[in-house]
Design brief:
CATH topology of the largest domain: Rossmann fold
Number of domains: 2
Structural class: alpha/beta
Number of helices: 13
Distance between the termini: 34 Å
Length: 307
């Protein structure tokens, strides 16, 4: 079930025959909603080959062009295909529900599976990284990407228990190291799994590059809608839109505001939107979701194209 779907469609202000990018296609929920609202064409991006393979059965016609690629490369791919600037871009950051629900992908500890966590199904697996990384590196990742206060203790326990191959093994190790007791409100394994997944898939770097690529891909008046699920992601989006809209923090008499001579590339930056009580009751994933949106100006994009 797509999170904040009505709010995303509203932020995109879809008009007939316009072209949109669904930068994180997943199970296709946002794409179907955009097409139902009147979009003429959607360009879907996903680095997960499973998502790309499933797309044809969802929209078996020319209204959807599906591309197996990271959304940070959208500007390059659109240019190579002669598509040009688009009217709107939707990004739903992080792991998809489809990936979480498949135990064999290793993103969740709700069901036992191999420690994989690769969105693209290529490269180093979570098990390979955990079994090779040193304790200090593991602790840093848990602290930086999971905001885990017991990062050092958990990293020490992981190293002592190696080799680790299954999601259930890792979850049990984390719980013991964190002193978890049945019935506690939150499971500490959640933060560890999040941290490893973000590191393995370079998700925060992808988000930063993807926002810049979206800036280069939107036509003047084009709309950007980004849904995040935790503070690390939201902070990046907030900082990007604040910087690109010229909404820098005010100065003081001791430190005057520095006037940015660069013309803003986004305007009408909306206040963040969270899920309604009605959505939270039917869609638990919306609990931590936050939508930020803005409209592209006619100012030149900042910086060069990501290679």
């Amino acid at each position: 079930m797509p999170v904040l779907i009505d709010e995303v469609v509203e932020a995109l202000a879809i008009a007939q025959a316009e072209t949109f990018v669904d930068g994180t296609f997943g199970a296709g929920g946002y794409t179907l909603a955009m097409l139902a609202a009147g979009a003429g064409r959607v360009i879907g991006f996903d680095r997960d080959p499973d998502a790309v393979a499933n797309a044809a059965s969802l929209v078996p016609d020319a209204r959807l062009t599906m591309i197996e690629e990271r959304f940070s490369q959208m500007d390059r791919v659109l240019a190579e295909r002669g598509i040009g600037l688009v009217d709107g871009i939707a990004l739903d950051i992080g792991v998809s529900s489809m990936q979480l629900d498949q135990a064999e992908r290793g993103f969740s500890f709700q069901a036992d599976g191999p420690l994989d966590m690769r969105m693209s199904r290529s490269g180093e697996t979570a098990a390979e990284w955990l079994n090779e990384a040193d304790e200090a590196e593991i602790a840093r990742i848990l602290r930086d990407y999971g905001e885990e206060p017991r990062a050092r203790s958990i990293a020490r326990a992981i190293v002592a228990a190696r080799p680790i191959e299954r999601t259930s093994e890792l979850a049990a190790i984390v719980r013991r190291a964190a002193g978890f007791r049945a019935g506690q409100k939150s499971d500490p394994a959640t933060r560890t799994f999040q941290a490893i997944r973000i590191h393995l898939n370079a998700e925060l770097d992808e988000l930063e590059q993807g926002l810049a690529a979206a800036e280069r891909s939107l036509k003047p008046g084009g709309r950007l809608a980004v849904v995040t699920f935790h503070s690390l992601e939201d902070r990046i989006v907030k900082r990007f839109l604040r910087d690109r809209s010229g909404a820098t923090p005010g100065g003081s008499r001791h430190r005057p505001t520095i006037v940015d001579p660069v013309e803003p590339t986004f305007m009408r930056v909306a206040k963040p939107v969270a899920g309604s009580e009605r959505e939270l009751a039917t869609n638990p994933r919306a609990r931590s979701a936050k939508l930020r949106s803005a409209v592209r100006t006619s100012a030149p994009a900042r910086g060069g194209r990501v290679q």
